[in-house]
Amino acid sequence: MLDHLVLGDTGLSLSVNGADTRFDYFWLRDNARDPVSFDSRSHQRELFTAALDPAIRPISAKLKSDASALVLDWPDLDVQAEYDAAFLAEFAVPGDGMHLPAPQLWERATLDHDAVRVPFDALTGDDGVTPLMERLVSYGFAVVTGTPRNLDAVEELSNDIGYVRQTIFGGLFEFEANEDMADSAYTPKELRPHTDGTYSHDAPGVQLLLCVDYNAQGGESIMVDGARIAAALKAEAPTIYDDLTRIGVTGIYKGDGVVLRANRPVLRCHADGRLAQVTFNNYDRDTMRLPDRDMRALYAGICRFDQMANDPAMQWRYTLQPGDMLVFDNWRVLHGRGAFSGMRKMAGSYINREDFESRIRSCGLA
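The chain above was modelled as a monomer; its predicted structure follows.
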């Protein structure tokens, strides 16, 4: 509901659902939803913003009699522009529009192991992948149980979230221990917690890993909440936290005929300071030479971060059984694997971040 409309020199103020706010006139004109200014079918702006008078202001302004919309007459429009209360409420507080639900930070002692499990069959009903997306939003990962043990199941679930991303490893992939591959993931050795794609400017947003066969000893999957580590560092070691948000780290993949490099901080933040992405992979960290002060600060930061990621108190551990599929947010959760001996066959895929976020929104979770 809208109330208390007051026109000022450069903007108007009003009450939106009981909260006072202010909108700049130029912003209101730029975001008018009339058919001349905006194509509601394509959700594209038709207005030539650069042609507007910077000092534009409405000729008149009023609230609809039922307080459901703001109605403005603009000097360059032949129709009235209506701004629904819901639209104004959505933008009543300035922000970048990238807000997603706040994560539920966890460590081993606070994580309910049953809460992260969801049957594969539960993702094919009327709600689709919503039960899975709820767990990914809250915890950053989930175990899908009872999954058919083939690439078709990986592809099906990937396409229900977004679509299979093509990488240097292909799209859908299967792997066992293979010393001929130039990647530590293909060995039976322990893999300490890390994120994938630190050598990619656009790291995969989600990874799916299905256990196809398991006749081995060891090989526990490891999950660590990178957002929980970031929150702890911000509270307990603010200097280290600040250093990890400002100093870029170069990741590298060199092998199989390619040399890939990308650079970003371990903790990348939005403009308002909210954590946007965790990027950490000590295996794939390239050789870097920074000024001594920054180099020492970076070493202190990555050592503290890695020590926390390898603290058993921070780790969820579970040995995947055939038909268990691990699905996780690669921009938040670090993953690893214990050493093993024997046969362990996995299948998987990656999904782009923007498609993951799109499915969160389409499921009504943001």
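The radius of gyration is 25 Å.
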